[in-house]
Amino acid sequence: MPVDVPPENTREAVPVGAIAYWPPGDALCLFWGPTPASVDDEPRAASGVAVVAEIEDVAALDDVTTGARVRVASE
């Protein structure tokens, strides 16, 4: 998902439910639990991400496997 604007306010530590743009991978990432870069249970990106939205209830993401494709839509 290439974006034509540079991300602002990137960070590595994000809240549970964060939807974030990851510039090095041109990817939209969903964070709902520990990642390989996590400290304790805090979700953490491999490098800076720009949080663009948050999911209130992440329970439906528990069955999503690593690398799975998901469709993100707004109400």
Major beta sheet summary = 4 strands, antiparallel
Tell me roughly what share of residues is in helical segments. Answer: under 10%
Under the CATH scheme, the architecture of one domain is Beta Barrel
Shape: globular
Low-confidence stretches: none
CATH hierarchy, class of one domain: Mainly Beta
Adjacency order of strands in the biggest sheet: 1-4-2-3
Number of strands: 4
Explain what you see.
- It is built from no helices and four strands.
- With 75 residues, it is mainly beta.
- It has a four-stranded antiparallel β-sheet with strand order 1-4-2-3, with no helix packed on it.
- The model has no long low-confidence stretch (mean pLDDT 86).
- It has a domain at 11-59: Cyclophilin.
- Helices cover 0% and strands 31% of the residues.
- The chain has strands at residues 11-13, 18-22, 27-30, 44-54.
Summarize this structure briefly:
With 75 residues, the chain is an all-beta fold. The protein has strands at residues 11-13, 18-22, 27-30, 44-54.
Notable features of this structure?
31% strand, 4 strands, globular, 75 residues, mainly beta, single chain
Indicate the topology:
Layout: E1 11-13, E2 18-22, E3 27-30, E4 44-54
Antiparallel strand pairs: 1-4, 2-3, 2-4
